[in-house]
Amino acid sequence: MTFPISVVSGGTGFVGRFIVNGLIEAGHHVRVIGRHAPNRGDFVGPVAFMTASLGDEVDWSPAFNGASNFIHAAFDHLPGRFRGGEGLDPEGFKNRNINGSEALFKAAKSAGVARAIFLSTRAVYGTQPPGKILDEDTRPHADTLYGEVKLAGERRLQALADARFCTTSLRVTGVYGPATAGREDKWTPMIRSWLAGTPIEPRAGTEVHGRDVSRAVELLLEAPIDDVSGKVFNVSDLMVDNSDILAIVQEATGLAHPLPPAADTTAFNPMATERLKALGWHPGGKRLLQETVRDLLVAVEQVDRPAPAA
């Protein structure tokens, strides 16, 4: 039996790591492109690694030689920031993320890669009428440079699609889940602050677990080409409020610290995911949210537990 070779750019990033591990578990041989070599324990199996960054003028062909699939999860931005990730260099930000991505797409196609998937974002929709449900036919209205750059990436990839090169974009909402050793996920700082009695501001947004993003990628690689080529797919699961997260922590710990008030979501734009679910995608929902928050709490307690007396 032969196993597919899949290339993942940005595979050492927070979301990319979920994708790499999902592909390894599905039997793929994985090659990772990233700025920094992976740490021990990042992945559930061995990977080949190429050190490179978006916008580098390098020969990409070694990464794509013999590969069947390319998943482009790399994104050049300031640490911890997507919106506003351009900092003081908007032109460089655009060049690296738009032209740099296109260079990778073209290199993959030239090498004979059959399928390419681009990790885009819900930010391409931008400002929409209050309460409007966002489906894939909703006209994009990107109103941040982040959204504009991702939308341009979608269009550059789609322009390369033909009978031998299947292209798809995933418009992903906020992604949650555990981070690797030595790194922190986005909710642990809030959990730690609440445990210390610090008041937490209300906030809500749509979320999806990184594992479910990985499963969406796997389904798109398995789906008939006519069902996915040239299309975009929304990836979103739950509306999650800070009070939802901390209620799980409160129940697990028995602490009486007050929960933040629920945020007003009446004007929020939820994402429709029927197109992806038609391919067999089933996100983890509230069960996975609860399991993840409990696991994050355990990790916080282990790290913050006082050392035993000598």
From TrEMBL:
Pfam families: Epimerase
Signal peptide coordinates: none
Family matches, as InterPro entries: Epimerase_deHydtase, Lipid_A_modif_metabolic_enz, NAD(P)-bd_dom_sf
SUPFAM superfamilies linked to this entry: NAD(P)-binding Rossmann-fold domains
Gene3D superfamilies found in the cross-reference section: NAD(P)-binding Rossmann-like Domain
Limits of the NAD-dependent epimerase/dehydratase domain: 7-235
Protein name: NAD(P)-dependent oxidoreductase
Originating species: Tianweitania aestuarii
